[in-house]
Design goal:
There is one protein chain. With 160 residues, the chain is α+β, with helices and mostly antiparallel strands. A four-stranded antiparallel beta sheet has the order 3-2-1-5. Strands 4-6-7 form a three-stranded antiparallel beta sheet, covered by helices on one side. A hairpin with a 2-residue loop joins strand 6 and strand 7. It starts with 17 loop residues before the first helix and ends in an 8-residue tail after the last strand. The mean pLDDT is 85.
């Protein structure tokens, strides 16, 4: 006994027609138009969270620098950049009495985020206690109309 004979498909039965392909492409386009604004918003929110986390990490690095090196250290935020400085300088140099510790993070280049106030600084003594002001400091991050805030207490702790 031989196997049953199957007819060879004609060219009409093989593959998809142009109309079927256009319908699929149109449906994918509609789905992309629906998903794109949500994806863009998610990316912007992630950038704000990342910039805020990097700022908190830099603030904590200032506190740890003060404790570990037994020097006054300060967290600086200016011109969309955050960094840590410590005084007195370990090597005498003309000009400033502050050493820059670690890297300077540019939040605008890295995350596309800007912040206000334009200039903020919080100093820590060698025990890691904030010395800066009589009131909390609020830093507001923004990107494409979205905002996120970071409140730093009088003692130099990130609150939100």
């Amino acid at each position: 006994m031989s196997a049953p004979h199957r007819p060879i498909p004609s060219r009409r039965d093989a593959g998809f027609s142009l109309v079927e392909m256009l319908v699929v492409v149109a449906l994918l386009g509609v789905l992309a138009l629906i998903a794109l604004p949500r994806a863009k918003g998610a990316f912007e929110a992630a950038s704000l969270r990342s910039a805020r986390a990097a700022t908190v990490a830099t603030l904590n690095r200032a506190r740890l620098t003060a404790i570990q090196r037994n020097r006054t250290a300060r967290f600086r935020a200016s011109g969309n950049q955050v960094w840590v400085q410590a005084t007195p300088r370990l090597v005498a140099a003309a000009g400033s009495t502050w050493d820059t510790v670690g890297v300077v993070l540019d939040l605008n280049n890295q995350y596309g985020v800007t912040f206000t106030p334009a200039d903020a600084g919080i100093s820590f003594d060698s025990r890691g206690i904030g010395l800066s002001s009589n009131s909390a400091t609020t830093i507001t991050f923004s990107k494409s109309g979205r905002t996120s805030t970071l409140v730093i207490s009088v003692l130099g702790r990130a609150l939100q």
